[in-house]
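User:
Note these tokens:
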Amino acid sequence: MLMTSTDRSDMNVPWLEPSEEQRILCDRVLKLADTLNQGMLRRDQEAILDREVWRRCAEFGIPGLPVPQGFGGGGHDLLTTLLVMKTLGYSCQDNGLVFSMNAQMWAVELPILHFGSDEQKRYYLPRLCSGEFIGAHAISEPEHGSDVMGMATRAVRDGDDYILNGHKSYVTSGPICDLCLIFATLDPEMKAAGVTAFLVDRGTAGMRASPALPKMGLRTAQMGEITLQDCRVPWTHRLGGEGAGLAIFNSAMEWERTCIFASHLGAMQRLLEQTVKFAKARRQFGSPISKYSSIADKIVDMKIAIEAGELLLYKAAAMKASGKNAVLNAAIAKLFVSEAHVRQALDAMQIHGAYGFLVENEVERELRDAVPGTIYSGTSEMQRKIIARLMGL
């Protein structure tokens, strides 16, 4: 749940009563967000991620929330981390920044934490948590977006090294990353058994990152392509064993689908509050538009979506935190929240009318930033496929 101050205590999930320590931590996030929001409109218009803003988040401890203190993190439990990230999603208007932080935490840091060697953990995790390094996760390819088994990027063993060749696309933070978690296959004929993961440092000969690609939303998140041409990587930079790549990827996606959408719920709450305020103030035909059922019904649906999304998300998180398999619940939560966010943003746009269509009023940006949630971490179609499979259909 979003925890800011006692005036929002009505938002608490009944079986998740925040502790005083969690409340204090989330109140501190509100103050942090005040500094992050400064200059946000300019960053969005120019499509840049300010490294100084990233550093402020790192100094606070955002990217290190779920990482043990022994590796430079905050050592927070999963539910505390989600409470903080929901609050950040609510209070920080820079959705691209929040998304990029989430992507690093769940798709780079946790794979290293759970599959890395002691040496890899000791070297990379403190740097990722401190903001010295920005991490990227590269698995998608131009011709094989959701088809992990069909990836064309090859890794060939050469003594104590691997030679990587291939092309990765849609890499969040790829243009600015200091570390890239890259997936390649030892042999396409091996299918899942050939997929292997590698930790490749920026500046490694043979790895080239493209400039940031222009995109519809989440403009401050830097998305680009990674090209590998005879890129030599020591075997000590392999993450896990040969053929462990699919397990690493599936683990990362389960974490991401369970956790990243807490920030979406925060953004949805911010947009709801903004819409309620507008609907009460905007008058048509002598009455606030909030008094018209066609408007009130949309706002009610926005509220219901947030409440239902929270229950789905925290059920998946509770299962994950207790060590249970959360693949089904994570897919359900991801599918519901991502699609509900888009519907809510469309309704907010309709309620705001021409006012919301103007860039300066930011409602249109919220819509642009909501749409990618139905694509990243697996498209809505892929989530339905996962859910159907686990239902035995």
In short: DSSP finds 13 helices and ten strands in the chain.
